[in-house]
């Protein structure tokens, strides 16, 4: 039997919750009945209609007459979660005869649907009318844990799929942002003369649901669908609560202080051991040694080899235990089958970090082998990078702890990748674009060290201004979100999440679960955490390169100045695509621009100076755009002409930019250059001097500016 309702509410709230859960568990149920779910809603301030449970037709009539018609009737059975499918729901019953007949019909339908079901009775509920039907729910994601959802509800919820997610528990600010985070947000504000729904009441429901699922870990899915959102409140017409009593083992996480302490020794080592070092060309251990030596690393290098006395001019040791001094990190270049023994010796030597290049672990199905090395690392407090990685670079130390090509172009961007191929693409792009990096890190299987460890390190690393990460999954999405939320307030965090498939780990028992597409969750949680999401590898690389170059804007007003009308239209489209706000041109500023452009040009925004203008026109309009405090960022569209050649344009832009900088005026400037091959050199010159510029594209410069704005908004700087 379901838990007995305590009408006088004499129990403490925690006792009520415990009793409801214990009853469901004892009866082998994975869901609460509707009356039980109503008790939870009452405890957590979630409005639900008046209702009662009838075990006979006459009792149903009495309950209905007591609350007033019309009413809704629903089957109450622990085994029947999807009541509509079972023919167990009737709505709009207007009188006693309809209720009497409805009771019998619902019970008959339920018996036919599941002859073995325990039919507790029929729930008679006050019928809600009017308002917008929305859904508020929660799911438990394998990576992110408890998530709260909000979207359009009712019978079409899984067809429309208009829903947004946040990590639970949510703040009131998060809850209100969810109301604006769906495509149908305008419906909630009132359309065609209709009244706006009560946003504060809806936010209350979202916050209280998030508190409920956060405080009751056994709840794995929850649906309030529909919630009738009206101008003067919000009430949940139906409640579904799905439970899971399986014990969960929390993931091992060191403290942030411990992470930073150990990561500093790993990333900035004074001494490196190479386990499996080799003097033979073509061996991974040989490449690692050469990269360390030839890369200019000034720390101590200890080759480890069971038989060699000397490798590439460095004394070799049979074991790390034989090395006389301290070692900060050990780079493994040995086959997988030898890693466990060598890692034990690393632990005994009290080396804080191990970089595991070898493959042959979980990625090949050798899960037990990976679990073994993790257990050894935990025992000795060794942090593991990898296995199955290319290693890492940290340029301020001239450190190339990798078997890949050496890299020595220093910069302020730190990048990581889960894939070796993506890592090599990062190296190639960085070198080709002269971007420069502070670090490039391979994470591979992420048996231990993952993205949140790197974030905490890069947060306090003075050599890093922006962090860009490629990932295929997040082992602990919640830990990452917490780290990203903290770090992104100080430094931009850009993420390229590969793979946009739906969750398939377990069949969902709720509408919310069925709507929880993997990519949708990542999209919403990354935004909640202040992360700038890259849609492609090119985006990741260009954002990493461009975001540190651009100064932080002081406001939202963007102005386009272009020498070609066609470019102006495309640049305007790109602004819309990237969430940028084209400034509505004030009359006085419009008149000021018109003084510099020909009569057949166009002021407004974009400002079209036309293609036949001399350098002075570009110079005057750009200067005006930088001088006026109402303009916060400039997008330049250049068209190649013999009157203003590409390098002439580039140099005059830099001249004006430096002139304004001397006066204390700095604004983001991006440029799109259309023309013959000479525009390539001009774009490069602009980029070298702080203007993010690209030839042959209107989309990319605006995308970089949009990324800077997204970060600045999330960090509260705009």
Mean pLDDT: 92
Strand order of the largest sheet: 19-18-21-20-22-23-24
Residue windows where pLDDT falls under 50 for at least 5 positions: 4-8, 502-509
What is the number of beta strands?
A: 30
Helix content: 25-40%
Number of helices: 24
- Distance from N terminus to C terminus (CA atoms, Å) equals 57 Å
Outline: flat
Report the portion of residues in β strands: 15-25%
How would you characterize the largest beta sheet?
7 strands, mixed
Rg over CA atoms, rounded to whole Å, is 31 Å
Protein name: Acetate--CoA ligase family protein
Pfam families: ATP-grasp_5 (PF13549), CoA_binding_2 (PF13380), Ligase_CoA_2 (PF19045), Succ_CoA_lig (PF13607)
Domain ATP-grasp: 38-74
GO molecular function, one term: ligase activity
Strand and helix layout:
Elements: H1 13-26, H2 34-43, E1 51-54, H3 57-67, E2 71-76, E3 89-93, H4 96-113, E4 121-126, E5 132-141, E6 145-152, H5 157-160, E7 163-167, H6 172-179, H7 185-188, H8 199-215, E8 219-230, E9 233-236, E10 239-243, H9 256-267, E11 271-275, H10 284-294, E12 300-304, E13 310-311, E14 314-315, E15 329-332, H11 339-348, E16 353-356, H12 367-380, E17 383-385, E18 391-394, E19 399-402, E20 410-417, H13 420-432, E21 437-442, H14 451-459, E22 466-471, H15 477-487, E23 493-497, H16 511-515, H17 518-528, E24 532-534, H18 537-546, E25 557-562, H19 565-577, E26 581-582, H20 587-594, E27 607-608, H21 615-627, E28 633-639, H22 646-662, E29 669-674, H23 678-688, E30 692-695, H24 699-714
Parallel strand pairs: 11-12, 11-15, 15-16, 16-17, 20-21, 20-22, 22-23, 23-24, 25-26, 25-27, 25-28, 28-29, 29-30
Antiparallel strand pairs: 1-4, 2-3, 2-4, 5-6, 5-8, 6-7, 8-9, 8-10, 13-14, 18-19, 18-21
Helix pairs in contact: 1-2, 3-4, 6-8, 9-14, 11-12, 14-15, 18-24, 19-24, 21-22, 22-23
């Amino acid at each position: 039997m379901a838990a007995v309702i305590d009408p006088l509410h004499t129990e403490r709230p925690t006792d009520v919750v415990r009793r409801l859960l214990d009853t469901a568990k004892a009866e082998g149920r994975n869901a609460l009945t509707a009356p039980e779910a109503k008790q939870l809603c009452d405890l957590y301030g979630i409005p639900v209609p008046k209702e009662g449970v009838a075990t006979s037709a006459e009792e149903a009539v009495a309950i209905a007459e007591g609350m007033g018609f019309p009413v809704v009737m629903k089957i109450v059975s622990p085994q029947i979660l999807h009541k509509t499918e079972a023919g167990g729901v009737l709505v709009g019953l207007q009188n006693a005869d309809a209720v009497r007949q409805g009771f019998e019909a619902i019970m008959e339908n339920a018996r036919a649907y599941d002859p073995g079901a325990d039919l507790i009775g029929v729930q008679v509920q006050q019928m809600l009318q009017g308002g917008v039907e929305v859904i508020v729910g929660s799911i438990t994601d394998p990576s992110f844990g408890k998530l709260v959802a909000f979207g359009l509800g009712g019978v079409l919820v899984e067809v429309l799929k208009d829903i947004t997610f946040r990590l639970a528990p949510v703040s009131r600010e998060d809850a209100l942002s969810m109301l604006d985070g769906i495509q149908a947000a305008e419906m909630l504000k009132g359309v065609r003369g209709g009244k706006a729904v009560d946003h504060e009441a809806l936010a209350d429901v979202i916050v209280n649901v998030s508190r409920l699922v956060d405080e009751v870990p056994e709840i794995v899915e929850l649906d309030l669908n529909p919630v009738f959102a009206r101008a003067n409140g919000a009430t949940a017409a139906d409640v579904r609560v799905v439970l899971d009593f399986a014990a969960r083992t929390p993931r091992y996480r060191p403290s942030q202080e411990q992470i930073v302490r150990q990561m500093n020794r790993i990333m900035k080592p004074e001494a490196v051991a190479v386990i499996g070092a080799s003097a033979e060309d073509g061996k991974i251990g040989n490449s690692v040694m050469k990269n360390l030596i030839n890369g200019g690393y000034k720390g101590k290098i200890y080759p480890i080899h069971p038989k060699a006395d000397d490798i590439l001019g460095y004394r070799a040791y049979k074991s790390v235990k034989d090395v006389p001094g301290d070692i900060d990190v050990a780079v493994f270049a040995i086959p997988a089958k030898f890693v466990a023994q060598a890692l034990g010796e690393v632990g005994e030597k009290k080396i804080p970090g191990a970089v595991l290049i070898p493959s042959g672990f979980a990625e090949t199905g050798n899960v037990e082998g990976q679990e073994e090395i993790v257990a050894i690392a935990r025992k000795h407090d060794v942090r593991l990078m990898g296995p199955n990685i290319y290693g890492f670079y940290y340029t301020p130390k001239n450190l190339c702890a990798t078997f890949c090509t050496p890299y020595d172009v220093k910069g302020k961007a730190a990048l990581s990748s889960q894939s070796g191929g993506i890592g090599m693409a990062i190296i190639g792009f960085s070198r080709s674009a002269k971007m420069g990096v502070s670090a490039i890190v391979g994470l591979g299987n992420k048996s231990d060290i993952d993205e949140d460890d790197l974030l905490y390190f890069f947060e306090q690393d003075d050599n890093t201004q922006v962090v860009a990460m490629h990932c295929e999954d997040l082992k602990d999405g919640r830990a990452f979100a917490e780290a990203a939320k903290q770090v992104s307030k100080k430094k931009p965090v850009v993420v390229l999440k590969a793979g946009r498939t739906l969750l398939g780990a377990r069949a969902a028992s709720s509408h919310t679960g069925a709507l929880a597409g993997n990519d949708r969750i990542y999209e919403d949680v990354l935004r909640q955490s202040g992360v700038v999401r890259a849609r492609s590898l090119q985006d990741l690389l260009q954002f990493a390169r461009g975001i540190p170059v651009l100064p932080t804007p002081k406001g939202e007003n963007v102005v386009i100045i272009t020498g070609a009308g066609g470019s102006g239209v495309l640049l305007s489209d790109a602004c819309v695509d990237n969430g940028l706000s084209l400034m509505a041109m004030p009359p006085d500023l419009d008149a000021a621009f018109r003084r510099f452009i020909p009569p057949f040009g166009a002021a407004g925004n974009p400002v079209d100076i036309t293609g036949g203008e001399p350098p002075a026109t570009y110079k005057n309009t750009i200067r005006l755009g930088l001088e006026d405090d109402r303009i916060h960022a400039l997008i330049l569209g250049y068209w190649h002409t013999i009157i203003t050649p590409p390098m002439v344009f580039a140099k005059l832009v830099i001249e004006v930019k430096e002139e304004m900088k001397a006066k204390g005026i700095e604004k983001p400037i991006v440029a799109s250059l259309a023309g013959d091959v000479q525009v390539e050199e001009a774009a490069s010159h602009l980029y070298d001097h702080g203007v993010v510029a690209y030839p042959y594209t209107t989309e990319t410069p605006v995308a970089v500016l949009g990324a800077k704005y997204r970060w600045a908004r999330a960090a509260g700087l705009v």
